[in-house]
Amino acid sequence: MTELLYLQDAYRKTCRTRVERVSELGIVLEQTVFYPRGGGQPGDTGIFKLASGHLLPITDTIYGPTREALHVPAAGHELPAEGDAVEIEIDWERRYRLMRMHTSLHFLGVALPYGVTGGSIGERRSRLDFDMQEPVDKEAVSEKINQLIAGGHAAETIWTDWEELDKRPDLIRTLSVKPPRTSDRIRLLKIGDLDLQPCGGTHVKNSSEIGRVIIAKIEKKGKHNRRVYLELADR
Questions:
Q1: Which of the residues 82, 136, 158, 230 has an alpha carbon 20 to 30 A from that of 118?
Q2: Which residue from 147, 35, 155 is spatially nearest to 95, judged by alpha carbons?
Q3: pTM of whole model > 0.85?
Q4: Residue 82 DSSP SS3
């Protein structure tokens, strides 16, 4: 299984590694700094520098059938062979924006403490769907989330196991999708004293890195569903 270096350091942009195999689905590496698409967060894009010197664009990163990280190469390019050494680099500007977006959604969940029925993270706009009936006060939520973000709250990773998580079902905010039981450990994101929940995505170290956000749009998607769209103010 590929060692996922971003789990320990989401700010790491590059690494030198080796190719485990190449298939029609993508390239599997011994280690990677690329985040595979999941949890509403897009997969990373970037560049592989091959032993020949060729620069291979990576257009997406996904999970394969057995949860291996698959790096999807652009069509029409030279591919590496099994065992080849490669230098890999993520599109850092894009990743960092997604990190800010993803972390801001956790603050949106603090501002609106309801069950989450869906969500999506994008470079320009992200959203969460909440299991709630009452209308959302756009201005009040916007003010509250920006106050929380400006508080400079640290975000850190905590690891636990399924036995401990099963004792704390309140930590799982998502109602439609539960954390996959694909490993013995579960990664939790802790933001100060505000938020603690399972999350495998990438986040900034401190909420001050997010900057101001805008509640762009609110939609009623059903009797018990409110969809809230969020954007970074420096979009």
A1: 158
A2: 35
A3: yes
A4: coil
